[in-house]
Design goal:
Elements (H helix, E strand, L loop, with lengths): L14 H4 L17 E4 L9 E6 L3 H13 L6 E6 L15 E2 L12 H20 L3 H4 L12 E2 L3 E4 L6 H8 L9 E3 L1 H7 L10 E4 L3 E3 L1 H20 L6 E6 L15 E4 L18 E11 L14 E2 L4 E6 L2 E5 L3 E2 L10 H18 L7 E12 L2 E2 L2 E2 L2 E4 L1 H4 L7 E5 L5 H18 L7 H4 L1 H6 L1
Length: 452
């Protein structure tokens, strides 16, 4: 989900100059200075298939990875990713990173087991790329540093704070999947996991296989995996594979007509502001502020290295023994894309978040706030299956020829990490085959409601 630090639709006038393959399209003679690319040229003269992915967050990079994976070995293939800010510059990069397959009522989410497994696969892809010996050779300017974690595998614990849904949630917990268990534990066991954890009703839910992801490190590593994959195909010398990152905005979707075989819009909340889609998507925007907290050096008792993160009315995403992220606020109908949080907004957010954190982890009083940041989420409508992202072919919204050229993948809301891998895979399959029927009808039904 891509977040734009300025208004994302103050568009570059140089876009038409910087787009394209000079090797195959000599009329394109100028490239943006912000373009990062890795190219594989071969003797094959076949015109490449060209795809534009708008957005470099969870949705966009998942689609790019799966397009590369599912493309023919023999085909010439180019993917151009457009994001004004760059990798993880939007709400995806600002998410809490707590990953598990359950709803707030501990019920398995839509296609929960499949989405969970596909997300874990992509996390492994990113970690493998990060640990590859070719890191410096492939991406010398990467923001990744030795020792920065991508996935923290310590589980998540959720104390019960209200009797209202306690029995239902306890029943739901019994129907968990084997690959992400839910253990109903009492206060003593919970406090062994997290010393000083508050468990007022003597019940907590522990998900030992749940993980905490560093979103920015993950997205950079996933992009690195895409580039490494392209580079590996160069050595085969049987086709041309290319991946480009353009740090630019797109004026409107029609301006890409004629340049690409398909355009996939993965802009998160930004999709609703494209001229062709404005007022036509059932999305609500929601700005969320998160706080970065650090434990001062003079406090001797660190957060235990093996202790889980905490999920409650506020979440505590633990990054290490002395650092964690606390979130998140919910400001509905906001149009503020900026990551920057003014002092007044920060004070208001902390006044809301810190009491919620103290209710489950009183030791938070010892931690110091180091800063705050924000992201603008695209929240999908509630359906019988839950709040599901919006996918599908959107040719009818564009007004051009109906040939499955334009596609939409948005509305990840607060569950981007959970849904992005499987849905990116399904979207890539639909785009490559030009067949929307490969996307589950639950994810495309929004179009019928819009038409009505």
């Amino acid at each position: 989900m891509a977040l734009i630090t300025q208004n994302p639709f103050l568009f570059s006038t140089k876009l038409s100059q910087s787009r394209g393959l000079l090797h195959y399209f000599p009329k394109r003679v100028s490239f943006s200075s912000s373009l990062l690319s890795i190219r594989c040229f071969s003797a094959v003269s076949q015109k490449p298939l060209r795809y534009a992915v708008l957005g470099a967050g969870f949705a966009g990079l998942s689609v790019a990875w799966h397009l590369l994976q599912q493309s023919s070995e023999e085909s010439n293939f180019c993917i151009d990713i457009y994001d004004e800010v760059g990798i993880g510059g939007g709400a995806s990069g600002m998410s809490g990173g707590l990953l598990h397959p359950y709803s707030p009522k501990v019920r398995l989410l839509w296609r929960g087991e499949e989405c969970w497994k596909e997300s874990l696969k992509l996390l492994n892809v990113a970690e493998d790329a990060r640990s590859s010996k070719s890191l410096d050779m492939v991406m010398p300017k990467t923001g990744l540093k030795e020792g920065d974690f991508i996935v923290r595998r310590r589980g998540i614990v959720r104390p019960m704070l209200s009797v209202k849904n306690m029995h239902m949630m306890n029943d739901n917990a019994q129907n968990c999947i084997a690959s992400c268990r839910i253990e109903s534990i009492h206060k003593d066991a919970a406090q062994k996991l997290v010393p000083e954890l508050c468990v007022p009703l003597d019940l907590a839910f522990h998900m030992p296989e749940a993980v905490n992801v560093n979103p920015q490190n993950y997205l950079e590593a996933l992009y690195l995996a895409c580039k490494t994959f392209v580079k590996s195909k160069c050595s085969l010398d049987i086709s041309c594979k290319e991946l480009n990152l353009h740090k630019e905005s797109v004026l409107n979707l029609l301006e890409l007509a004629g340049d690409y075989d398909a355009v996939i819009v993965c802009l998160g909340s930004g999709a609703a502001f494209l001229p062709e889609l404005s007022g036509r998507l059932p999305l609500r925007t929601c700005r969320g502020v998160i706080a970065h907290l650090q434990l001062p050096d003079h406090i001797r008792e660190d957060y235990p290295e093996n202790s889980p993160s905490i999920l409650s009315d506020a979440w505590l995403a633990v990054q290490g023994p002395q650092t964690l992220y606390l979130g998140s606020t919910w400001e509905w109908k906001s149009r503020n894309f900026s990551r920057h949080v003014p002092d007044e907004e920060a004070s208001k957010a902390l006044a809301e978040l810190l009491p919620k954190a103290s209710a489950v982890y009183p030791a938070i009083k010892n931690w110091t706030v180091k800063g705050t940041c924000a992201g603008l989420r695209a929240m999908p409508p509630l359906t019988a299956e839950g709040s599901l992202p919006l996918l599908g072919c959107i040719d009818e919204f564009i007004g051009g020829p109906t040939e499955c050229k334009y596609w939409l993948f948005t509305g990840l809301g607060s569950r981007g990490l959970f849904y992005h891998a499987l849905l990116g895979k399904l979207m890539a399959q639909a785009v490559l085959s030009c067949n929307e029927d490969l996307i589950p009808s639950e994810l495309t039904s929004w179009k019928h409601r819009v038409k009505q």
